[in-house]
Structure formats: C-alpha cells, structure tokens
Amino acid sequence: MGFTNLLQLAGEFAISDINNKNEDIRHFFLGAVALRADGVIVKARNGSSVLPCPHAHAEARVCRKAGRNSIIFVARIRRDNGEFGMARPCKNCKNKMIRYGIKKCYYTVSSNEYGVISFENRNECVREKNIYKGKSNANKECK
C-alpha cells in the first residue's frame, strides 16, 4: 500500500463514524494512520473538545498505538468542501513523535501537495502530488 493510499485512508477515517456531525462545530476533521514496524496499521482521529487540547490530536493519539520505527500519515478534511487541507503536526505532536521513536510523518498540505517530516535526519520537505490520483509532479520523493 503506497503512502498516498495511506493518506487517503487517514482522511476517510477522519470523517468516518462521527456522531452528530451537525452538532460538531469544527470546520475540519483530522485523522492519523500509522504503519507500524510489524506491518500493522493503526488509526486515530482528533478528539472533539471545546478547548484546544494537544492530547486530543490524532497524531498524539496514534503515537500511543504505533511504537518505534513507525511511519505516520496525517490528513485534514475540510468540512466546507471535503478536500484535503493543511495537516502539518504541531510542535507538541512532533515532539511526541520524536519521543515515541517515529521514523517519518507524511501529512496533507492540499489535495495536490503533501509534506514529509523525517525524524531520522531532522529533515522536512513539501512535494506536489495529486493525492487522489497518486500522480507526482515532483522530480524526486522526499527522503
């Protein structure tokens, strides 16, 4: 399963099984999927809270399930049009990924772009790629 498929899976999970969508005032939904070192896929979504709470972030929640050497995929789905939006992990979530030994984090920027944070070499880049079709306009993949 390619990374674009896993970003799509994170997006689908973000909007799946949300109770009372009409009562939820958030303007986006966020999901995270992790590919563990043993090949198992684990999932988490943002918890709903009235006040901002970093512990409710999908990335923080999936870290607890993922374990060392996992790769995390984070997707934000915009409520207004159902498209991918910026899902770059916050500083708290990036620090948690480092503590949990996560290797890499892919995140949506838009429907045509994704970002990659490599915790192994402390590198981050953004590449253009149609996430829905899996066709890349990038000359090379993010390392």
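That was protein one. Protein two is written in the same sequence-then-structure order:
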Amino acid sequence: MRSIRVILVIVLVLYWVTMFVLTHMPPRNLPGVGMNDKVQHFLGYGALGTLLYLTIWAFWPEFRFAWLVVIVVAMCYGAADEITQTLVGRTCDFYDWLADVGGSVLAAATLTTFRWAKWKRTIARQRDAWKAREEVRARLAGEGA
C-alpha cells in the first residue's frame, strides 16, 4: 500500500505542476489541442479531482469527506488559477471556473459512488459470513445436545 501512496502523490504533484505551467503560459505559446476550451477545463479538473480523491482515499481510507475536500480545493484553486492567468496576458473567465468545478464535482461524485458501492459489498460479505458462522454454531450446538 505504501508504494501506491507514493505513486499517487508523485503523479498528483506532477500533474498539478504541469497543469499550472500550461494554464500560465502566454496565449501565443499555447499548444493547439483542437478541443473546446470548456471541455479542456472540465477534463483537466476532472483528472485533478480524480487524482486528489484517490490520494486522499489511499492515505485515509476511513475519511468520508474526500468528495468535499476535492470540490473545495477545485473551487479555490480554480479561482486562483483563473485570477492569476491575467498576469500572463490570458483572460479570467467565470465559465472556465464553472467548467473546472464541474469536472471536479463529476470526479468526486463518481468516485464517492464507487466507494459507497464497494463499502456496501464489503458489509454484505461480512453479514453473509456472520450468518454462516451462526448457522455452523447452531448446528454444532444441536449436535452436541
């Protein structure tokens, strides 16, 4: 588990730094991607939200508010990112920020749903195992009488 945590942190940091560099390049230096600007924001922050959520989950598996951390971080970082882009001649766009938040909300909701379903399966397996143990105990108690 330790190696997964280390890998997640490294990937998260590298992705976030790359994202920062790309979003703070002057417009004339930006590589063309052939994709709508809002879709880029949505996907970029969706990936950031996914990496952040997985990293939180790997370090604190019992923490139930990873979704909230992801959304708040995306809202704050997205706003700071949009505001500081003006320093390099780019525009600060409210709709870009909305796309940022939307991508992170989708990532957080998807992973929270997956995590909840995984938890429900685990609880069901534990309940089934408990019932099986009780049945064996009852049979053994019936044979011993």
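The mean pLDDT is 90. Keep this in mind for the problem set.
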